[in-house]
Amino acid sequence: MGASKLAVIGTGYVGLTTGACFAHLGHHVICADVDLAKVERLRAGEIPIVEAGLDDVVADAVAAGRLEFVHGSTAAVADADVVFLCVPTPQGEDGSADLSYIEAAAAEIAPSLRPGAVVVNKSTVPVGSTKVVERVLQRDDVAVVSNPEFLREGTAVADFLHPDRVVIGSSDPAAAERVAALYRGIDAPIIVTDPASAETIKYAANGFLAMKISFVNAVAAMCEAVGADVADVVAGIGADRRIGSAFLQPGPGWGGSCFPKDSRALVRIAEDHGYNFSMMRGVIEVNDEQRARVVDKIRQAVGDRGLAGAVVGVLGLTFKAGTDDLRESPALAVIDALRTSGAVVQAYDPTVPPMVADHRATVLRGIDVRASALAALEGADAAVVLTEWPEFASIDLAAVAAVLRGDAVVDARNLLDPAEVRAAGLRYDGIGRR
Ligand code: UDX
Question: How far, in Å, from the CA of 62 to the mean position of ligand 1?
Fold first, then answer.
């Protein structure tokens, strides 16, 4: 089967990456978004998100005439063989996923879909959502398929083009085959199953990864109590091929637009179907505690003066390095707690300019965002690393000692070498380290 005509609804990091990469594979893709300003920026060649390699993939595909951007879904789906729904599925108030964007997109495209078209849920949706889309579409000549994304922010292009697997959930084998054929050129196993299993795979994968991180953060707390070193413990357990060492890096807890939402949704979906997923509740609880543990470390670092009136220099605002995304960032959660305790917070992040003029200005209100790491540490009682940006790992520690008012470093990402920090005349506290 040669190139197909695809439509992608939603141009966030999932939709834009999916559209651009399918065009890269040779398909003809039309990406649609409700936000006209965003469509115009994309048409002007602007990529509004930090995603390694995405600008090149988009530029090449547009130049080859295989990728275009339109405002509104109707225009995108008229000739499409397959339509990918890549719209947000935010966390509802009660923990359940809010499907309103998916339902709205399905309702909008229903009258324009060609007979025999396939609609694909790419967004992370609760188990059973394939039926929800079928019900909204009211088109028995259109198949609905689940094809969950496993893209990490910041490496979405690499994760799309070199996945560990492609998962397709469909009760219609022909529709599953048509979606599988789109991935020709991708070297990865294709797992075809029913929709409920495909949707469960997505949540279970994220739940398991979040569990690994919470587990290592809990082990780090134990290491501090028993005088062990978490780096050696992680090396010792990670050498076991059944455990592996990926996603065992201690930190301030997981954040972002996925793990917090998907872990709560997993508990909620289980609960709605009569199962109390107590292990997942524990994973979430450990994660919430981790932020409080970091705040306690900072409280100890500033000493008897206490946090009220203390100046804390924070390095890193995004939820992880390699992205500009602040959503559910542990750094912002820690900063909120510090400011609630009366501390003054100066901060630096390579993706956040001092005069924040974009949609992120609201979440950053009250934080004194500086232009460099050393500027953020100027006159601070403690330096705190909250995001693992590489430039922080090679920071000039003598210069840090010179600009700090205090002498404490709290390294919530275990990025720095404790011996080097101490050699610069500073106190060091990491996560689970001696
Ligand atoms: C995640 C999943 O990895 C991806 O497969 C899914 O499709 C979307 O959600 P993402 O949220 O972009 O991707 O980031 P990820 O790299 O998974 O990190 C999530 C959080 O865990 C970040 O806050 C990160 O700092 C933290 N983390 C990750 C750790 O604290 N320790 C680790 O070892 C790895």
Answer: 30
pTM above 0.85, yes or no: yes
Using a 6 Å CB cutoff, which residues line ligand 1?
149-153, 206, 209, 213, 247-249, 251, 254-256, 258-259, 319-320
Query: What is the average pLDDT score of the chain?
Result: 96
Q: CATH second-level architecture of 259-429? A: 3-Layer(aba) Sandwich (3.40)
Residue nearest to atom 32 of ligand 1 (CA): 247
Distance 319 CA to ligand 1 centre (A): 9
342-376 confidence digits (pLDDT tens):
999 999 999 999 988 888 999 999 999 999 999 99
Q: Does domain 5-193 have CATH number 3.40.50.720?
A: yes
CB 409 within 8 A of CB 377: no
Across 272-396, where does the E strand assignment appear? Answer: 311-315, 344-348, 368-369, 382-385
Task: Flag whether pLDDT at 386 surpasses 60.
Answer: yes
What residues are annotated to the active site? Answer: 258
Phi-psi region of 18 (alpha: psi -120 to 50; beta: other; left: phi over 0): alpha
